Amino acid sequence: MAKVGVYVCHCGSNIAGVIDVSAVRDFAESLPDVVIARKDLFMCSDSGQEMVKQDVRDGLVDRVVVAACTPRTHEPIFRAAIEKAGLNKYLFEMANIRDQASWVHGNDHEGATEKAKLAVASAVGKARYLHPLHDKFVDVTNAALVIGAGIGGISAALELANMGHKTYLVEKEPSIGGIMAQLDKTFPTNDCSACILTPMMVQAFNHPNIETLAYSEVADVDGYIGNFNVKVRQKQTYVDWKKCTGCGDCADKCPSKTPDLFNGGLSDRRAAYIMFPQAVPKKAVVDIEHCINCAGRTIGTQPKINEKTGKAILAPCERACRAGAIDRSLPLDPGGTIKEIKVGSIVVATGYQVMDKGWFKEMAPASPNVITALQLERLISATGPTGGKLLRPSDNEKPHTMTFVSCVGSRDVNFHTHCSRFCCMYMIKQARLLKEKYPDLVINMHFIDVRSAGKGYDEYYTGAREMGINFFKGKVGGLEMLPGDQLRVLAYDMEAGQSIEYNSDLVILATAVELPPDATSLAQKLGLQFCGNDFFRELHPKLGPVETAVAGLFIAGCCQGPKDIPDTVSQAKGAAAAAAVPLAQGRVKIEATISEIDSQKCSGCGICEPLCPYHAISMRDYTDRARGVIERHAVIEMSSCKGCGVCTSACPSAAIKLHGYEDEQIYAQIAALTA
Amino acid sequence: MIIDQKKIDETIKIIKANGGHGIQKCVQCGACSAICPGVKAGFPLLCRALIKDLLNGQLEENIENSSSWGCQACNRCTEVCPQGVRPQEVVFAFRRYQANELAFSTSSVTSQMNLYETGHAVFTDPKEARRKVGLPEETPTSAFNEAAQQEIRTLMDNSPMGELGLF
Amino acid sequence: MEQIGLYLGCNIPLKNPDIEQSFRKIFPALGVQPVDLEGAGCCPAWGTAPSFDLNTWCAISSRNITIAEGKNVDIMTGCNSCFGVLSEAKHFLETPATRTAVNNSLAKINREYKGTSDIYHVGHVLHKKIGLTKIRENLKYKLDGLKIAVQTGCHTLWPSDVYKVKEDNPYYPTMLKELCEVTGATVCHYSRLEGCCGMGGMRSTDAEKSLKLFKEKLLSIKEETDADMIVTTCSSCFMQFDMSQPILKGRGEIDFEPIPTFYYTQLLALAMGFEPQQVASISQIDRNPIIAEIQSDNRRIKEGM
């Protein structure tokens, strides 16, 4: 007969403020097989745990039920405690009387107490039928994958590589660097973005432990912590990167133009192009969508022959390439090539995009002089389309008055309710840089409020006021298009309580930070979830900020939520440290609460196989030599099984047991709840 | 100004009961006031300023303020509001509070009487103008339709408006 | 021929019946038959029931809508305020509690709101149902070379979530612009395109404030477009432009002649060859010269062309 000990937690006032803990304890004592029922102010405290451990050590109890908070955070703590006291850690059950009773029924003390009693009865019912279970271990592939090579991905990759782990760094663009590579200077120190980023790009690219896969995307992922199998699609560059020297001659000769997205569409680039001057790797690609196949040189066709000279007629890019890296005769597959890699852990650092101005109908999106703040970065960058001169797009004239509009699409129920968090600071940075360079420029900044939380940030903001930049509290309501490509700003001065109207030459919209659309398909491949603000969801908003619901999969940077460069780097280094843990341990634990098939009972019907969401089940043939027949059975790959129980409930022969959730345990819970 | 929670609660209750359901969503960003024709024309107590006063419990204090009657109901504010407040509905809720306390200009009474008597808020004898443009002298509307007028009167008599003694 | 309920409102049938007559002339010629909604009254105007009680507003609005429902037709309004008031009422009536309360009131006059008739504006019917091509085919005069400033007015634009037909961008409306351009005229952009004319509650509450707003808009039109005429699809805006320009002129606040103003269907009726006396004869500003210009012989579109 089981000897169940029940321990009811006050959780300070979290539980005891609503629930009559003594009544729950008294009730627990009356339940069958319960030999001890105790309560404590904080069961998870040292003294609380010690109480349980002592009872185990004294041989008083051999099954433990803790009625407290959520098993998500606290089950591991109590399991570890009883294990230390010498009891199998799976002889433990938790009743969540905080989340499921005191928190949700805060206004109904009696009802919450009754519900807590039921939860305890259910847990005790199950505990009576628990068996000892044993974790299993599998070896780990000592390599990591970092997806996305902006400042977050580069930081994480360098960290992992420096710890000695082979690291794959996958980037969808032809160059690593991400959005930080587009920025001019960085707040609050005004250091040049390229100057601090480029060395890191080079360091990552040349690191002996880092294999950079640029112009590549994750095509498929399966496996589990310690042993992920990843297919990476290396997109077709149409340029042989082994030969390409990054000279840029092909781009000089290419006649086909398309908007240069690196410059926010403010200038054109060629179809054959190098992403930006400091690109790493500095390699050219042919953007086949915008390639016009000069001289009829469609990829994979033989050139025409000049009848007079007898020479092949080549496309300008081919002719220009002295390294012979461009050969349009080669039958290249536009789908690219798949590279299969094996890694033990994955860090996702895919970053963000800013919303397009076209969403904001009141903000005169048709005007060329209304641009996003990221476009302004390119306008003021020395490598940008104007060589760093502030010229408004409509006529390349220097603006006299310019306007910054905050919270465009952020803190807005029509678009995104979240604060994009770093817009206030980058707008102030842009304004300061411009005011320094052009003291006569009138700069009007409109904020709902200035959010400058961060070391040195508020000083940076108040300093901007002293520089003669005008700040207005109040959201801009709209823009009107004036003759001469000016904009009339319709604003409001909250402090003065008056509406404001003035003409502006250039208007900067701080549009919201959001996930790019391809994040959705990546999330599906990886099993990532989204949070309420449509960023990737971390395991726990406070205590698991880099972990995800998938073991071995970590997130960092703006894909987890808007954050500035220092926060991104911090989180990336944290994610790298967490991702290194399984690699350093060399083996990972497989929880014992997974499904197992009784091959004697399995009829080989195969119903379970397609139902398994983790592809853990396969059908195998066995030769029964004694009977001389071939039998078919389902087999579960234990390292893939997540213990969801779908197969268990679907099996018509009841051949599949889910350890820790066995029939008699669940029946006992039901019986206790319905008694 | 003294912050009196009782007054605040009561004010919000009254505004919501009169249709200003979104008032507590307001974060005072001021976008509504930036594009409000009324604010621009010089009616100070509209949109965000009115909402702020109401959120401070300043209801009776503003009862005689005529700003709300300068609202064009154009709903630019509703369109631009980032929080779904629907400020125009708050302004009209305040107006309804004023109207039911009979705090509105006497010129407005004519419209209510016209509506009650002819079914048209604006009524002028149209016969000559209609003859001139080649239309029948009488409109097909309630203006020349006793049964229709009676229906409108029934609706108004049986409404809170009927208790104000305006018609 | 497709039928549509012609909801007249107050100002159009009582003060500007030439606008009403322009509806009655052009729509049948363009293949849509307006049907009278006998006994329909005020929408009710913003300053009446909407300012007193939400359910009374919805009851009076829905009474008008039930007349169209009884004839199994949608509603077409010429007045922007009517369009706004009826559309918003319909929006409120989506709330079950409001609908129940309103139907309890309507039961006293033996009516029931069902929500089967949609609310359209005259401009919507012309742009979306009839279409620019059909309008172009029915023109008798081409307006090439004439400059128009358009005034869409507030209540067909915002709040866009309650309207059956929406502009692509309510801050830069294009339907009226395209309707004018189809006549051959040039429509000039001006910065205060979406600005309020100042008519409505503001004008009756404080005429001076209303005129201040109006003057700003008028100057934007004059200075940025020097238009030959102003064309609107809002009868209230029409009245403001027609009535207040002479006031500003009389006070010496503007130094140019008032710009002739038309309700859009008046302009279209003239371009379709209808009698000015019937479709565009009531205004304070003298429109005879521009009407003569519109219907001049050298603008006549020759048969078969």
Helix and strand composition category of chain C: alpha/beta
Helix content of chain B: 40-55%
Largest sheet descriptor of chain B: none
Shape of chain C: globular
The rounded distance between the terminal residues' Cα atoms of chain B is: 39 Å
pLDDT averaged over residues of chain B = 96
Tell me about the biggest sheet of chain C?
4 strands, parallel
Q: What would you call the quaternary organization?
A: heterotrimer
Protein chain pair with the most extensive contact, residues per chain: B-C, 66 and 67 residues
N-to-C order of helices and strands of chain C:
EHHEHEHHEHHEHEHHEHEHHH
Please state the CA-atom Rg of chain B, rounded to the nearest Å. Answer: 19 Å
Poorly predicted tracts of residues of chain C: none
- Biggest sheet strand order of chain C reads 2-1-3-4
Which series of helices and strands of chain B comes N to C? Answer: HHHHHHHHH
Q: What is the count of β-strands of chain C?
A: 8
Count all strands of chain B and give the number.
Answer: 0
Structure in words:
The complex is a heterotrimer of chains A (675), B (167) and C (305). With 675 residues, chain A is α/β, with parallel strands linked by helices. In chain A, helix 6 crosses helix 7 (193-206), helix 6 runs parallel beside helix 14 and helix 11 runs parallel beside helix 12 (457-466). Chain A is globular and about 95 Å long. In chain B, 49% of the residues lie in helices and 0% in strands. Chain B has helices spanning 5-17, 31-35, 37-41, 47-55, 76-80, 87-100, 107-118, 127-132, 146-157. In chain B, helix 1 (5-17) packs across helix 6 (87-100), helix 4 (47-55) packs across helix 6 (87-100) and helix 7 crosses helix 9 (146-157). Chain B is elongated and about 60 Å long. Chain B starts with a helix and ends in a 10-residue tail after the last helix. Chain C contains 14 helices and eight strands. Chain C has helices at 11-14, 17-29, 54-70, 80-92, 96-107, 122-130, 132-137, 175-181, 201-205, 207-225, 235-250, 264-271, 276-279, 288-294, and strands at 2-7, 32-36, 75-77, 119-121, 147-151, 186-187, 229-232, 261-263. Chains B and C meet through helix 3, helix 5, helix 6, helix 7 and helix 8 of B and helix 1, helix 2, helix 3, helix 9 and helix 10 of C.
Defining key terms:
heterotrimer, B: 167 residues, mainly alpha, 9 helices, 49% helix, C: 305 residues, alpha/beta, four-stranded parallel beta sheet, 14 helices, 46% helix
